[in-house]
Amino acid sequence: xxxxxxxxVVSLERVQAAREQLDALNQSLAxxxxxxxxxxxxxxxxxFAKLQDNDANLLPAGQATVDNxxxxxxxxxxxxxxxxxxxxxxxxxxxxxxxxxxxxxxELASDDFGELDSPEVLDAMExxxxxxxxERTATLDLDSxxxxxxxxxxxxxxxxxxxxxxxxxxxxxxxxxxPRSPRDHDMKFDRFALIGDxxxxxxxxxxxxxxxxxxxxxxxxxxxHTWESARRVLQQLYQWVVVEDFLVRxxxxxxxxxxxxxxxxxxPTDTNFFMPLEFSVAAYRFGHSLVRxxxxxxxHYPTADFNDLFxxxxxxxxxxxxxxxxxxxxxxxxxxxxxRVIQWERxxxxxxxxxxxxxTRLVExxxxxxxxxxxxxxxxxxxxxxxxLLRGYKLRIPTGQAVACAMSLSPLDPAxxxxxxxxxxxxxxxxxxxxxALMNAGFDMHTPLWFYILAEAELLEGGMHLGPVGGTIVAxxxxxxxxxxxxxxxxxxxxxxxxxxxxxxxxxxxSTFNLSDLLRLGCxxxxxxx
Length: 530
Prior knowledge:
disordered N terminus, two-stranded parallel ribbon
């Protein structure tokens, strides 16, 4: 896949071109490539399809709605994040959430989808579903790790060396970068990460998380596993962590336990399995509110800013070459500099890198999205919150109130929503004219689903986890996808837990196995974590 900026929309036509380029790259590489079944586009659908029968369940179509969605998105801008905005979720789970997203969803739209901020909504459910497809398998089977063009050596997945620049990070060896193609005058292939989903080289932390999965696979091979059995064990550990660690933190134990007994609303059949747009376009984008504006990467970089995340990758940066500034070196680095390797013990504990609260405010860098050259986009392309809201409008996502009623839940109090919108607009420094227009837009009664889910978490749960609408959608979709995944932990009679893999791991493990343990498996975490 070509270089792309954060939140970039990918077209069906662009992906076909990228596939052809990837085929050419594969033929040029002098290394074996991991096996993966040919990908096929899978369908999107609506979790609450009956709501599409009545336009009253949608935002009203027209230019006024588009203009007000832009205002609503701008009001979500947090100029000065405070410690009070921090949650009790460690920021490693922000990036695990992104990793999961890349494993199950790559939304493709045909080139005739139209401009994002045009007033036309796609005017029929069938028309939407014809124009958008999912390029991922919509199952949690780690095809992002094992898919083409990920290279392997015998039973082991290939790692990349780090560039010997700066001081090493304690406990880290020289193989702590993703495998990469050589330098190339064509930017699309220059130091391209050889992994199953190029988006996992979008920022430094998710690239290092992807590397941790490669290293965990190799650790299993070192314990006597074949390539296939190591993949099976890693898939099951990953699924367990997603359900019993990630989801418990994001939606709460009660919701997880209820959904494990069976879904109430997302009930696809084996012949009609799809990715719900209410999940991919609205509910699962809760993760954008978790994003911090700076991180403590390691002992060398305790205050790295947001843009640094993207500079030290190849997909959205140039591995150290900062556009518009004096380059660190003439052409950046061949590989990730060794002093940039992530110390995971700083990310899996809430101190020093807590994720932000799940709420209706996003850090300022998410309103200054950059293109693949590091230059800030123009217009709505730079504004992640605005893009999310407009995309939901274009794709006919029902309002939060309509979905709540479909779930037999009482919608949020309009007065509380109105006050929340007012406070946000004032904090964001909106002028009086825009603020008045926003307050009269009717979003307190007909709220975009993405904003509603964030507001629900903020108003009902103090931002610590998702509320009843958002939590139910996220838990039901992810758990149903795991049920249909290769080597699913739900295939077994009785309750599966990692203790069944104690022999395979050559250590005693139990139901407390979590993300820290998974990272430690590949020696990504070198110290004891509290």
